[in-house]
């Protein structure tokens, strides 16, 4: 082989080597790119699946009389951290009335409810819309407290009470009974007086009354509730700064989504039912009722109606708090 032809052959060999180097580099780059893409896809898939994680919000099926106690309650629920639920619940009834019936302005547009929660039935997990209703009873304790608790017990459900501090003395046994049956005993001020609570425009007396009542309830039940309901509702008396003061005092405040107007129909319990039928349509409802004779009379029918509509009955749980106030204030 001549020197020239050897040089040529070496040059050819070198070109071949360069080509195979290039091909190898391309293969490596493609493999790397594929790895990165599949990694990104995996992350996206994990995140998407995570959003539908059934453990984030678990509600069990509606319960009827005779079923076991736990089945009608929201359990393992994480409503408080689910922004969908919080958002939903801040869209309350357009024509909200105070709990003494005065029509209150509420500019919130009615929104379709998109509460997607999870049913947990015999470890079978399937995603479906679960409707939840919170029955709430204001202005107790009273001679009707035990009757209301009995009706709830007969139906295997629980409710949320907002009791008045000045009614506690002499009614301690009723308060204790409601608490021990699994209901939430919340706060509704000491005086229920519009003048004392709102006329100054300052939150000072309001917070003082609720703090005092919190101590009294704790003495009776052993539990210091942090959920309050402002007498007559939070609007129009309670403004933004006032709400900030309530939040700073570590209280949460619930208004309602449905006003049964039960106080207004002492001789017409059927009209309470009509109000509820007219207003109930959301996936999560908080119904305002009072400890009144007419309410006790119609309560079994209300429970039956809501059950047939597919609602589960839930009781307020501090660790699953979500906002229900007319101002849509997420601090409360
Ligand atoms: Zn009230």
UniProtKB/TrEMBL annotation:
| Gene Ontology biological-process entries | carbohydrate metabolic process
The family database entries (SUPFAM superfamilies) matched by this protein are listed as:
Glycoside hydrolase/deacetylase
Q: Which GO terms describe its molecular function?
A: hydrolase activity, acting on carbon-nitrogen (but not peptide) bonds
Q: Where is this region: Disordered?
A: 99-124
Q: Which UniProt keywords apply?
A: Membrane, Transmembrane, Transmembrane helix
Family annotation (InterPro entries): Glyco_hydro/deAcase_b/a-brl, NODB_dom, Polysacc_deacetylase_ArnD
Membrane-spanning residues: 27-46
Which segments constitute the NodB homology domain? 131-314
What is the official name of this protein in its record? Polysaccharide deacetylase
Q: Which organism is it from?
A: Paenibacillus anaericanus
């Amino acid at each position: 082989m001549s020197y020239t032809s050897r040089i040529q052959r070496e040059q050819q060999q070198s070109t071949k080597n360069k080509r195979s180097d290039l091909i190898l580099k391309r293969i490596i780059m493609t493999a790397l790119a594929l790895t990165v893409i599949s990694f990104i896809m995996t992350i996206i898939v994990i995140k998407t699946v995570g959003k539908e994680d059934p453990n984030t919000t678990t509600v069990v099926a509606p319960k009827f009389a005779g079923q076991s106690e736990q089945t009608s309650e929201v359990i393992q629920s994480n409503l408080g951290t689910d922004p969908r639920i919080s958002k939903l619940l801040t869209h309350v009834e357009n024509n909200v009335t105070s709990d003494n019936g005065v029509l209150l302005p509420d500019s919130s547009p009615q929104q379709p409810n998109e509460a997607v929660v999870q049913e947990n039935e015999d470890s079978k997990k399937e995603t479906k819309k679960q409707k939840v209703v919170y029955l709430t009873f204001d202005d107790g304790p009273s001679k009707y407290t035990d009757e209301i608790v009995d009706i709830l017990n007969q139906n295997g459900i629980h409710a949320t009470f907002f009791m008045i501090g000045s009614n506690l003395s002499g009614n301690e046994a009723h308060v204790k009974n409601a608490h021990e049956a699994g209901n939430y005993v919340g706060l509704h001020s000491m005086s229920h007086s519009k003048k004392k609570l709102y006329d100054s425009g300052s939150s000072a007396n309001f917070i003082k009354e609720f703090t005092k009542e919190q101590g009294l309830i704790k003495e009776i039940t052993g539990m210091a509730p942090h959920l309050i309901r402002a007498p007559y509702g939070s609007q129009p008396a309670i403004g933004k700064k006032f709400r900030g003061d309530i939040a700073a005092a570590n209280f949460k405040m619930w208004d309602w989504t449905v006003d049964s107007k039960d106080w207004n129909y002492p001789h017409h319990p059927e009209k309470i039912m009509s109000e509820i039928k007219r207003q109930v349509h959301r996936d999560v409802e908080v119904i305002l009722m009072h400890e009144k004779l007419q309410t006790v009379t119609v309560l079994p029918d209300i429970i039956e109606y809501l059950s047939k509509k597919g609602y589960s009955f839930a009781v307020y749980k501090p660790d699953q708090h979500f906002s229900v106030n007319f101002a849509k204030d997420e601090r409360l």
